[in-house]
Design goal:
Blueprint (H helix, E strand, L loop, with lengths): L3 H12 L4 H18 L5 H14 L1 H16 L12 H19 L2 H12 L3 H19 L1 H18 L6 H15 L8 H9 L4 H33 L14 H18 L5 H15 L9 H19 L1 H13 L1 H12 L1 H8 L6 H10 L9 H10 L7 H26 L1
Helix pairs in contact: 3-4, 4-14, 5-8, 5-12, 5-13, 6-8, 7-8, 7-9, 7-11, 8-9, 8-19, 9-11, 9-19, 9-20, 10-17, 11-20, 12-13, 15-16, 16-17, 16-18, 17-18
Length: 419
């Protein structure tokens, strides 16, 4: 009898819902239900999903981590709204949606068939694929050129049975779009900013960049020629027969009009908000599948970079540290900054600290070569390439490093000689 109260107390503790053990069991059950609602079977399943997503989106993860760390110094506030370039984000969104529609309508497939049927050699095909973004980026911006012609390159080389040349070709397209677009104010976002910030004349702007643009054109032609010769020696590409591509004329008309509106927005003929309203309404009513073609991860990457660059420019110590080197060495500082934060944010961050527009302009444009984040247009090319069959991130990055390092060294040497 003396032991009965002790056993009763023990049972009471075990059964009582108010005790810590019961709360722990209840919390565990609640967490388990939450995981099942989210589609996960266990915590290990969640960790596997997160690690897989990081491997799939390494640039987005790095950008988000850097943005989060910078937020420790500059917590979220209403001033963050000023960080974001609405026109860049809206144009990217609308262009990705409309180009996705143009791909689905069969137009790019028909163009690829025409090129493979009428081109006289692999060299001429490579030159066409690389020089199209080189020249169109001058008027349409490098982002538009890559969003349009990288999918075209994928279709063309796959139909030729030359998938192994695809990584090199897309890398060259990214470099060509960056280097061709640098010669005009409309070619790259950083050019638009610098042209307006320093109130430059059109003639002096073009004169500063034309020699480097010309040298880049020669380099692109030589690189494509060498690549085509090596491909011809190692393997004769044969055209893989493709069924005649059907063009959906209704879908083509819808997205053709929307694409034209995007170009009008680039030319500042219509506002980005008007473009967003028209494109969103048209896609909701006529082609909701186009939203699936939008690379939302890329948009998130841009948002993270805007937060990072905005926070860095708001930290007094960073601004003071940048002031002296930018004033004395605008070219080197802007080129180096472009490698770690991309050339568009670098231009916006450094321009207030120097009157040397010439060095800054050349630094951020030549600095578009180098690391994958030196130009955000390169990220667009990479993401589009990774949608292709047998895409290899390692293959792309090796060729990217070789092309960009070679181009960077040559153009920096040219800058040193012209000083």
């Amino acid at each position: 009898m003396a032991h009965l109260p002790q056993r009763h107390t023990h049972r009471s503790r075990k059964a009582s819902p108010g005790q810590p053990g019961a709360l722990g069991a209840s919390g565990t059950a609640g967490a388990s239900r939450t995981l099942h609602v989210l589609g996960f079977s266990s915590v290990s399943h969640v960790l596997t999903f997160v690690l897989t997503y990081i491997r799939k989106e390494p640039v987005l993860f790095a950008a988000a981590l850097c943005a989060a760390l910078s937020s420790l110094a500059i917590p979220p506030s209403p001033q963050w709204i000023g960080y974001f370039d609405a026109q860049v984000l809206i144009l990217l969104l609308c262009l990705m949606a409309t180009v996705s529609g143009l791909r689905r309508c069969g137009l790019l497939g028909r163009m690829a068939q025409y090129l493979t049927e009428h081109a006289s050699s692999l060299r001429s095909i490579l030159l066409c694929l690389v020089l199209l973004p080189f020249f169109t980026s001058m008027l349409l911006t490098n982002d538009v050129a890559l969003l349009t012609f990288v999918p075209f390159a994928i279709l063309t080389l796959e139909s030729l049975g030359q998938r192994r040349l695809l990584a090199f070709t897309v890398v060259m397209q990214a470099a060509a779009a960056n280097l061709g677009g640098m010669v005009l104010p409309t070619g790259n976002p950083q050019n638009i900013f610098i042209y307006a910030h320093y109130q430059l004349g059109f003639g002096e702007f073009v004169a500063a960049l034309a020699p480097f643009c010309g040298a880049s054109l020669v380099g692109c032609i030589l690189a494509c020629t060498v690549a085509s010769l090596l491909a011809a020696k190692s393997e004769t590409g044969r055209v893989i027969p493709q069924p005649k591509t059907h063009v959906d004329k209704i879908l083509l008309a819808i997205h053709g009009v929307l694409f034209a509106l995007c170009l009008l927005c680039v030319a500042r003929a219509i506002s980005c908000w008007m473009l967003l309203a028209i494109v969103a309404a048209a896609l909701v009513l006529l082609d909701r599948k186009a939203f699936a073609g939008v690379d939302w991860g890329l948009l998130a990457t841009f948002v993270c970079f805007f937060i990072l660059s905005g926070n860095l420019s708001s930290i007094p110590q960073v601004s003071q540290a940048l002031s002296a080197p930018v004033t004395e060495h605008a070219f080197i500082t802007s080129l180096a900054a472009s490698q770690v934060m991309s050339n568009v944010p670098a231009a916006a961050l450094l321009a207030p600290f120097t009157s040397n527009w010439h060095g800054l302009l050349l630094g951020v444009n030549i600095g578009g070569l180098g690391t994958p984040i030196a130009s955000l247009a390169s990220l667009i090319a990479y993401r589009l390439y990774m949608t292709s069959v047998e895409a290899s991130s390692a293959r792309f990055m090796i060729r990217f490093a070789l092309v960009n390092l070679g181009g960077l060294v040559l153009l920096c040497g040219m800058y040193a000689m012209l000083l």
